[in-house]
Write a structure and sequence with these properties.
about 120 residues; alpha+beta; two-stranded parallel sheet
Length: about 120
């Protein structure tokens, strides 16, 4: 699957927990929001949700390609998968320094998605 992330509407680097799948106030999405929309999930469903686990797990599992975003916990509840949590952390990372750059954040996101056969291209 190909995924295009538009830097102009990409919500990122606002700090841990600041990412939103779709923020209606400015039309921005985190990397997982772009992915969920590419799967066919509407902005109405994603609006102001912080993470995949905030989406009804039954709905999310209907989109087979997105089923890796959540895992069933030992207690029977559903939670974000390890890779979904890694993507959220990379997306929301604040630290840009001489040791890390915007390009490194994009590369980290690209590598994590590639593990699920999702090929990411950043534009604009």
């Amino acid at each position: 699957m190909d995924l295009i992330i538009d830097r102009q509407t990409w919500l990122h680097q606002e700090g841990p927990g600041a990412g939103i799948l779709y923020r209606s106030s400015d039309g921005k999405s985190c990397c997982l929001g772009f992915y969920c929309r590419a799967l066919g999930i509407s902005n109405d469903v994603l609006e102001n949700k912080a993470e995949p686990n905030d989406i009804d797990h039954v709905l999310l599992r209907k989109f087979t390609r997105g089923s890796w975003l959540i895992d069933k916990e030992p207690n029977g509840e559903y939670g974000n998968s390890i890779d979904a949590m890694r993507l959220m952390a990379e997306n929301d990372r604040l630290e840009i320094s001489e040791f890390s750059s915007q390009e490194e954040i994009e590369n980290g996101i690209t590598v994590l998605f590639a593990a699920h056969d999702v090929h990411v291209t950043f534009v604009n």
